[in-house]
Amino acid sequence: MDQDQGKLHRLVEELQAAQFDVEPFLALHTEDAIIVNFGGRRVAGRDELGRAMAAGLASPLAQVITTAEVDDIRFLRPDVAIISCTKHISDERDTAEPSFATTGRLTYVAVEEAGAWRVALAQTTPVAGS
User: Fold this and answer.
1) How far apart are CA 101 and CA 25, in angstroms?
2) DSSP, res 127
3) 11, 98, 112, 128: most buried, per Cβ within 10 A?
């Protein structure tokens, strides 16, 4: 499982690196992934996620940069893991003040499919007052 922990850390790093590149980002998710973003918007499936991501990247949200630090990894079984992260948000848009919290708690449920770990569910909860 130590090897899988390393793979899951890399998965989080790859998600971060691909946050502005739709196709590589989508490839890191299961076909039926469910994502609930920082604002509470829920998208289901890679197709819907791709449309939402493309729309976001075509808007000022493309200037909002996120990073995630892995806090904990728990295996529910050998092929299913919960990854708890602290998410940091940097709002680079030309606004007087950020319009949302700058820190969140990010939880991934990752599954191993054919030797590769992918995100099946992601949920981000803003930290009040951050």
Assistant:
1) 23
2) P
3) 11
